[in-house]
Amino acid sequence: MKHLIKSVAVLLGAEPKKPQADEYTPEALAIHAEQRADKSRIALIHAEIAHKKQHKLPEKWRRRRWTVLIVVNLLFVVSFQLDIQLLEGALTASRFVGFHMADLNSALQVMLAYKEVVINLVIGTSTVLVLWWLLGGRTFCSWVCPYHLLAEWAEMAHDYLAKKKIITDHPFDRRVRTVFWLVFAVLAFVTGYTVYETISPTGIVSRALIYGPGAGMVWVATLLLFEIFYSKRAWCRYACPIGLTYGLVGSVSPLKVTYNLATCFHEAECKKVCEVPHVLDMVVKGRATEVDLLVGADCTHCGRCVDACPTHSLNLEFKGLGQLLK
Fold first, then answer.
1. Four-residue CA torsion sign, 101, 106, 110, 111
2. What predicted TM-score, i.e. pTM, was given to this entire model?
3. Which residues contact 216 (CB under 8 A, 6 or more apart)?
């Protein structure tokens, strides 16, 4: 329960803190002491990083994720263009072979705005709630959200420009995302209008793919330019209420990225590629309180840390079912 509370607190914007002495298990303390005493580890870390530079590890999870994301969004497009009742609507609200599905954040906005609960909305929300509880909440962000893919490409451009020292990144306080979530909820309730849906890049890009681009794509382009030249992943990290909603669902999901202290070299290759590096605080030397830990609720399960870790200390697993396909 303590880990769950900390995980949700970090999701809401709290910064990870160094654990107190009484939070460490004897097994974890023993491993930390062994690692501190092992002077050969430094040489091994340098050798490992040098080997990685010469032999770039394949990003298998990224390829799988991009494939799934593109296929899911193409199903909407094909269903509309061919007028078949396979996957109707858009990501905010849809029907899959007749079953209603509703994005959790969008459904919340609608219920707050109209102050009533529609049975189809309850059915659609329940279906999606169970689905994303099983698959891990923010898995929606990296495996389904079309804006996430655009933002990932923007991140690649940002990193390239930063490496060339043309730009620098400007991070914000992550607590502002929780503030945005509350503001949009209050606006929906007070105005009777789903304010967030008009500016949601997820909804705008989804509808643009299916029905054709509209004026909203100017807003999306502005966000992407902001992320390329000023603040990496700004919308997903600091503003998007959808990510926060799904993160809360995923906090108790059986699908988790797991971490093993015993095999970790603490070279932080995983944090370099992570979209939300604060969830990997346990990989910092001396921070892991247990030998085996679960990565927190803000994790998008993109799998990049799993691919980047040369010692396989990070894995994507269903609790109780073991490791997924490598």
1. positive
2. 0.90
3. 198, 199, 204, 207, 208
